[in-house]
Design goal:
The chain contains 6 helices and 19 strands. The chain has 362 residues and is mainly beta.
Length: 362
């Protein structure tokens, strides 16, 4: 019930979703992936959760992809009294074509209806997000600095066995190169932007001297530069509807992803789990994307010193240079997720176009 209302006891953003799920018979789509490129195959299993004293005797499920001829009918569905879970049918189809001219991916709605005879028992729907195949490769031709040492980091994709051996996994130099970006192993001031997993004295000197750097921090992270300024990348705590993630649409980041704020299913893989905390609320305009809680003066469970908005894409300045800190999970695990690919390229384009920041590091 707490999720159905907000702090002011008004109807919460997720109220309709929770109300829709609070039924005795519920169709559930167990999908593998929601973001797909044109030509990819969508795969899922359609299940029925039955929790009702009235059994289903002559059940029929009809499903369709709205606006297409894709769909199917499953007959002969029966349940017992009380609790039951059934696999209705596997679903598999090639996703519809989407033209790059549209400028944004297409949200395709799958609708399923459960009948007992002529009586409609449950209707549920889900969206999948389809992107032009042309967007699977980046359009950026400029070389990006990415020194090997600075492109290595511990994060949540490293198996514990490798961590115990001191293995620093997740090379941005490698994963971005495979993704189609032109990478340079070093700091070359002729290249406009550096993409880093860590900031040390060498990276500090590069930025302070006028370089622009993107720091991709997908896990908890700190460095001397952040420590001197009371900043750190920290776990958000909790999860689900308790955290409201957003992107300022005027930034242009994510404009090809069909989304509204707060961020929901298009970002189920790429969405951040950590945020930059310790920021001065007076400089909130430096937060291009971030998260906050439902309650007034929200206090992060895992960081008692942090209040207000935490940054998931944040602008900083240091000396003559600038830093764009991103905590979106855009590399390396999610480099096959279309939304992750798009967000990564948009972040790099944003840095290449130049930006100003109010938060000054010392």
């Amino acid at each position: 019930m707490a999720r159905n209302t907000d702090y002011w006891r008004e109807k919460g953003y997720w109220a309709d979703m929770f109300t829709k799920m609070s039924v005795g018979d519920l169709l559930i789509l167990d999908w593998e992936q929601l973001n797909l490129f044109t030509g990819d195959t969508f795969r899922a299993e359609l299940h029925l959760s039955h929790m009702c004293v009235m059994p289903i005797i002559n059940g029929v499920v009809k499903w369709e992809v709205e606006g297409t001829d894709i769909g199917g009918v499953v007959e002969g569905i029966k349940t017992g009294e009380g609790f039951d879970v059934l696999l209705v049918t596997p679903i598999s189809f090639k996703v519809p074509d989407v033209s790059p001219d549209a400028g944004v991916g297409k949200a395709c709605r799958i609708i399923a209806r459960l009948y007992d005879g002529e009586r409609l028992i449950n209707e549920n729907e889900w969206e999948i997000y389809v992107y032009p195949k042309a967007w699977s490769k980046p359009s950026i031709e400029k070389f990006l600095n990415c020194p090997m040492y600075h492109s290595l980091a511990f994060d949540d994709v490293v198996p514990n066995a490798l961590k115990s051996m001191g293995w620093e996994h997740s090379s941005l130099l490698y994963t971005l190169g495979v993704a189609g970006f032109n990478m340079y192993d070093g700091f070359n001031r002729d290249n406009p932007v550096a993409v880093l997993h860590k900031i040390d004295e060498l990276a500090e000197d590069y930025i302070k001297g006028g370089g622009t750097a993107i720091l991709i921090a997908t896990g908890a992270y700190n460095c001397n530069l952040f420590k001197r300024n009371g900043l750190r990348v920290a776990f958000m705590g909790g999860g689900g509807p308790g955290k409201v993630n957003f992107i300022r649409k005027e930034s242009g980041i994510g404009k090809r992803v069909p989304f509204d704020n707060p961020l929901l299913w298009p970002f189920y893989k790429a969405g951040p789990r950590v945020g930059l905390v310790g920021l001065d609320p007076a400089n909130n305009e430096d937060i291009i994307a971030g998260y906050f809680g439902h309650f007034v003066n929200f206090q992060d469970t895992y960081d008692p010193q942090s209040r207000g908005v935490a940054g998931s894409i944040t602008k900083l300045k240091y000396g003559k240079g600038k830093i764009l800190v991103s905590t979106f999970r855009v590399s390396p695990r999610n480099n096959n997720d279309p939304a992750a690919k798009i967000i990564l390229e948009d972040i790099i384009i944003y840095a290449l176009n130049g930006f100003e920041a109010m938060t000054e590091l010392k």
